[in-house]
Design goal:
2 copies of one chain form a homodimer. Chain A is of the alpha+beta class. Chain A has a 6-stranded antiparallel beta sheet. Chain A folds into 2 domains: 62 residues, Arc Repressor Mutant, subunit A (Orthogonal Bundle); 179 residues, 2-Layer Sandwich (Beta-Lactamase). Chain A is built from 10 helices and 8 strands. Helices cover 50% and strands 19% of the residues of chain A. In chain A, helix 1 crosses helix 2 and helix 5 packs antiparallel against helix 10. At the A-B interface, helix 1, helix 3, strand 2, helix 4 and strand 4 of A face helix 1, helix 3, strand 2, helix 4 and strand 4 of B. Chain A binds a DNA duplex through helix 1 and helix 3.
DNA sequence: ATCGGAGTTTGTCATATACAAACCTATATG
DNA sequence: CATATAGGTTTGTATATGACAAACTCCGAT
């Protein structure tokens, strides 16, 4: 047996290598947007012939489409994604509240969940004052670091600190603005504060000029199901409105979602 | 070499078997909603051990999640699906028009594309009179047969008849109501009529009590990019409104989307 | 006409995969 | 309380499968 089992997993868990490869290719396509065959070969470091076979298979299965020379993710994923959303209790329990909150505040509202140590947006809604930003596209299109956002930090605050350490160790700190949290010490302090006050704020830590207020949505057994947040420009989100009114609204919404989850949700969250 | 190359593909195109298997498992999970390990084993006819390894891998890659004993599709798919949508020109070009049409008519409006001979919903919007129906969930969550819907038939009408025959041969006719088209003859007649009048109707062919009006959205070179449709109960969708007003509105919307596609769309549709 | 880059096909060997069977681990059953 | 049984996981192993390299085709540029 080969001794270069560089697999992170000590010992047993067998994996299907081809799926990992396929996953990497899909990720590359998503990342490169509309790559050509050669783009992909450069990105993934697998022999041309093999990449070809993978693309052929993935296209045949509907995971990708080729238009002309360009590959892109296939619409089968839209269907699957939609299906996931509708099966996710927190989406069903929270959609209405997100819309209401967006209407009340007039700003962007996000409903997110944690997945593999990152934050995934399940649903978003914008009020009439919400500004159009590519930012929101990015939010929806790719997972974010939990410590970058209000909702993310709110979820982290509910986690066991060891788990937080683990997540951060694995991902490292990526600095997005000069206010981004970039060390464990500061993060832990922040999480303590969040835990104490019941909600988290994000003060230009991810995007300059933008603030958010978020709070976790928890299940009966105190497990984190997700989080909800309001995002707006600093000009509009400041003073008492930022420090008390909005947090109040956000926590109220989270609370209602929690109740919805408990009453309707026969099965476990997520 | 083994001579039982039962592969439908004559001769060459090599495929990665593991991806096909993984795809089948994902499909089974989507279909069964929240299957347990054994449910899946029964569904897919692969040895227990192997299924285990696949699930392990798929979970590790974020394609599925295990909550308790239940497997379900993972939120990574939400992100990917969203990414696909936003890269799809017709979605960007058509979203606004769909919303406007929903507002004008007060009913359900769908923006769909063809994928592997089936119809996939890219976006939908409901007006204030639109009835809540599980039907719409199904529309969004899984591909539909093209000959079942107004939008689908509108797209079929633009295809080469050989292609239509091919699609139908492969999928067969599934009867949903007593009005569903169930033979090629009738379908071809219908497609001719659609081609002549510029739009398609669906008169309780998919769901009893529901009618729709749809039309194709085509690119510069007459290629089909997708379709748009309005759906409402027969009670509201009848007479002149059904036969002329709504078709007019639908075709107008399609037209605007086509213009958007041409002006904004630097790259090819889909 | 010729070249070169991009993409596809094929032969081949190492190895990843799928099976079977053994092995755990909870939950039901006598 | 012991035992059975179903649900789930791990392991050894033969063989089908994937990955590479190199040959090949196609198309646009020079």
């Amino acid at each position: 047996m080969n001794d270069m089992h560089a697999d992170d997993s000590a010992g047993s868990p067998r994996r299907i290598k081809s799926i990992q490869t396929a996953s990497a290719i899909l990720e590359a396509i998503q990342y490169l947007e509309t790559p050509t065959f050669t783009d992909l070969c450069n990105e993934v470091d697998i022999s041309k012939g093999t990449v070809h076979t993978y693309l052929e298979t993935l296209e045949n299965e509907g995971f990708i489409t080729k238009s002309g020379k360009e590959y892109r993710l296939g619409v089968r994923l839209v269907t699957m994604g939609e299906s996931v959303r509708n099966q996710t209790d927190i989406y069903r329990a929270g959609q209405d509240e997100v819309e209401k909150l967006a209407e009340k505040t007039g700003e962007w509202v996000h409903l997110t969940v944690e997945c593999q140590g990152q934050e995934v947006t399940l649903y978003e809604s914008s009020g009439d004052r919400a500004i159009a930003m590519d930012y929101h596209l990015r939010m929806r299109e790719s997972p974010q670091y939990l410590y970058h956002t209000a909702a993310g930090k709110a979820m982290l605050a509910c986690f066991d600190r060891d788990r937080v350490r683990e997540i951060v160790d694995q991902q490292g700190f990526v600095q997005r603005t000069e206010k981004t949290i970039t060390d464990l010490e500061t993060l832990f302090d922040e999480l303590d504060r969040i835990q104490a006050q019941g909600y988290a704020v994000n003060d230009e830590e991810e995007v300059r000029g933008m603030r958010s207020v978020g709070t976790a949505i928890t299940g009966t057994d105190a497990t984190v199901c997700g989080a909800i947040s309001v995002t707006a420009p600093t000009s509009r989100l400041s003073g008492d409105y930022f420090e008390s009114e909005i947090p109040e609204l956000v926590m109220e919404a989270a609370n209602i979602i929690e109740v919805n989850l408990e009453t309707a949700g026969v099965q476990k969250p997520r």
